[in-house]
Amino acid sequence: MKGKNHLTAHALMLLLALAFAVFSGNLEAILSSFSDAFARQYPLVLGIGLALYFIGAILPDSDSNDGRSRIFYGPFFFIGWLARMMELPLALLLGRKVRHRGSLHTIIGILFSSLIVVLFISGIYFSVFRSSFTPAYPLFWFICLSLSQFLHLLEDLHFRLK
After folding, report:
1. Handedness of CA 93, 106, 46, 34 (dihedral sign)
2. Cβ–Cβ under 8 Å, residues 113 and 104
3. Which of 47, 56, 57, 100 falls between 20 and 30 A from 11, CA-CA?
């Protein structure tokens, strides 16, 4: 599946989830539960989570053999290269070959790459904004990124079965 198709599918799923939250009356409750944890940084933390959600739509494809994955051609290309550097250690750990749809397309690969990327983003965030460490931020970002990568695998599986 092409990167633009993953991004489109993720955008549609996000819109469906938001529509469901709005029409079920749960959106306000969801936002208020986050607002306590995020306080003044709420828009920025939410924006980073949204960016990570869309990065996760194409991040597992950073293991592509030819390096032509969409993750390498955008403002977040450094995250693609960070994930690509994780491919070899993960492949050795899991006893898999380094290839497209390899170690980054596994549950362990998703969890590990999400953890490393979120630690990287959190380090930048907390050093730039000099705010005290709040575990809710990295946890939220980890959920956004790992959930998105799991959706990527489901999309790949769906189109492979067709």
Report:
1. negative
2. yes
3. 100
| Number of compact structural domains in the chain | 1
Tens-place pLDDT, residues 87-142:
777 777 777 776 666 777 888 889 988 998 999 999 988 888 876 777 888 999 99
- The one-letter amino acid at 156: D
* pLDDT attached to residue 3: 67
| Segments forming the whole domain that contains residue 14 | 3-161
| Sign of the Cα pseudo-torsion (61, 65, 68, 72, in order) | positive
84 close to 127: Cβ distance less than 8 angstroms: no
Please state, in angstroms and as integers, the Cα–Cα distance from residue 31 to each residue in 93, 98, 118, following that order. 39, 41, 22
